[in-house]
Amino acid sequence: MKCPYCGGEMEQGVIENQNEINWKKKRRFFGRAMFHEGSVVLSEISVWKGSAVVAHLCRKCEKVIIDYKDGQCDFNRKK
Ligand SMILES: [Zn+2]
pLDDT at residue 79 above 70? Predict the structure, then answer.
């Protein structure tokens, strides 16, 4: 994947967590996306595996990009 900022090649990697990985409008004590309107689940929680998403890194621009289209970034995606 090309970095949209500098055009250089990005490194593919993984972001892992023990809880659901999601995007929310602001930090919340009860972090699950289901409790907060407008939230986006990036990786479903799995008690056995934890959660993980594919992420692309540009070291030069110090940016990380997660492409969550159709849930394709989610290691726990239900096939
Ligand atoms: Zn870049």
Answer: no
